[in-house]
Write a structure and sequence with these properties.
This protein is α+β, with helices and mostly antiparallel strands. It contains two helices and eight strands.
Amino acid sequence: MKHIKIMLSIFVVMLLISCRAGLVVPNYDTWLQSQTMPSEVDLTGKWDAGYVLHGGWGEANLIQQGRDVYGTLGLYRVKGVVSNKTVFLTLISTGDHVYYSAKVTMKEDGSFVGLAVKEALVDSPEAAKAEIYAITFKRMK
């Protein structure tokens, strides 16, 4: 009986530790709100982010209202903000789960280039340990 109690106690402690580890989720809304510079670009429209089968993200359909950006990028819903000529995005999958954060900056030709990071803030120390992907898009004609 004593061994069962010890094993049960160890199990409960391990369960609590694993649950606590799972609760460490970046605050994406706070991250987006911390980007405070005025927008210098308008993202409203259709964008080509590369053919999915060739490693791209697909087509983006974006709407910009003030500094806020909404829409879709491939299979993801997008929520983001524009600060100067840099766009900070969250790519949301099923439900409200943020799958990627991304940071892209406008180039002289009007296209955008940057990085997307899986389940971490793109400009955080945790990003170095996460999966990182290139992300580029240009306006469709």
